[in-house]
Amino acid sequence: MHQVIYDHHKLGTELDYIQNLLKEISESRVRYGIQDLQDIVGEPVRMPFRRAAYSEVDETEVVGLQDDKINILKLLCPEKTPRRAVITIVGAGGIGKTTLACMVYKSAKADFDYHIMLSISQQFSLIDLLRKMISKNNNSVPNDRGEDYYVGELKRCLNSRRYLIILDDVWTGDLWNELKEVLPDNKNGSRVLMTTRHNDVAKSADSKIPPYELNLLNEKESLDLLLKKAFPYQEPHEECPKDLLELAPELSMKCKGLPLALIVLGGIISTKELSYLAWERVLQTMTWHSDGTGCMRIVAMSYEDMPYYLKACFQYLAFFPEDYVISAKSLIRMWVAEGFIPLEGRRTIEIMVEDCLEELSRRSMVQVLSRSANGLIKHFKVHDILHDLAMHEAEHENFVTVFSQASDDTLPNNIIRRASLQAQDKNDQFLEYAT
């Protein structure tokens, strides 16, 4: 009799587990936009990934940059100007300079013998930049030599070759002043493409080629981008209810045509109910000021909209330097060790932490760079403006204290809960987007 009762209890427990598992699968299917297999009629059945595999720039998701891409490619054409030329893309933070540069790089690199795209931090090291360029063709670059050695090696690497070097997010003219003496002019159409927020940097790079200024999106482009992010992996105009389509232009106009603001706002409303009241509440909380803080206010609103544990995960990103390519696997282990994520049901902590990173991606708070074969995030980075927000919130909450060579050695007055040591001369401070 006792055995029968025990068996019934065991069976009931296993049924509860299966029911909870099915519920989680169903919720995940909705969250990641996966169709029911029976809904796919007349097509071969393929098991869906967690999300579609990511390419560095999915141009089908890009709005308003196709004409700019064509114009920049014309400037890069080697036959147009045989001398080494420097093209600069200038615009405000969040306007799409990096996205445009990635699009151009993907299309143009096959026309050059040597090509590399690097992200430049505010505190750059010329030696590290030279080492990164040399390592493009040589994996065994010594790290204990002087500047003259690396200059000579790079010149030998680029000698008689037509090269394309893209320097993303240049902050000062000092960078090009140092590099122009290093990069040879082979008179074969070599090109340097720089992106910057600062007009003085852009104008000083090449006096014969005026800076290429990116414009803000118009009303239609703004609305299209907002809806693409609000309804990822779907057709927005089919999925969005009619009353929300009428409200969406008011939301998009609040972003003043700035792509990053539209992307983050789209991430916010993608988490809301498909109801007029829910979207109207978002609209009522939005403000934009002409002092340049409008984008920061929108990303701050996205941060405030997060649950407490997701805020902790976002603040943790302040541990990493600006423009750092973050390994999702390493970060997930850190989050697990910190115990940020509350357990729910029978889901493993690893799955829940992975879902938190996916949620940050869905809210457009991180930029995914690569995914594994099963769709999980492998590497990502954080936009400068969002990194500034993470740093601000982490400092305000005394979540992490950052030490770098750019700062003084004075210890803060408050108790240090977590410390991040960010050396300026780390080799991977400069990051290669594509190979």
Brief write-up:
The chain is an alpha/beta fold and 435 residues long.
Describe the protein:
By secondary structure, the chain is α/β, with parallel strands linked by helices. The chain has 4 domains: 2-31; 65-213, 3-Layer(aba) Sandwich (Rossmann fold), CATH 3.40.50; 219-304, no CATH class; 308-432, Orthogonal Bundle (Arc Repressor Mutant, subunit A). It has helices at 2-31, 66-76, 97-108, 126-135, 147-158, 174-179, 199-205, 219-230, 236-239, 242-253, 259-269, 276-285, 294-304, 308-315, 328-338, 349-362, 384-396; strands at 85-90, 114-119, 163-170, 191-196, 212-213, 326-327, 367-371, 377-381, 401-404, 419-422, 431-432. Helix 11 packs parallel to helix 13.
CATH architecture of the largest domain: 3-Layer(aba) Sandwich
Based on helices, strands and strand pairing, what is the structural class?
alpha/beta
One letter per element, helices H and strands E, the order comes to: HHEHEHHEHEHEHHHHHHHEHHEEHEEE
Instruction: Please indicate the count of domains.
Output: 4
Reported for the largest beta sheet, the result is:
6 strands, mixed
- Provide a count of the helices: 17
Query: Terminal Cα separation, in Å?
Result: 68 Å
CATH structural class of the largest domain: Alpha Beta
Helix content range of the residues, please? 40-55%
Named CATH topology of the largest domain: Rossmann fold
Give short descriptive properties of this protein.
single chain; 435 residues; alpha/beta; Rossmann fold; 4 domains; 6-stranded mixed β-sheet; 3-stranded antiparallel β-sheet; 17 helices; 11 strands; 45% helix; 11% strand; globular
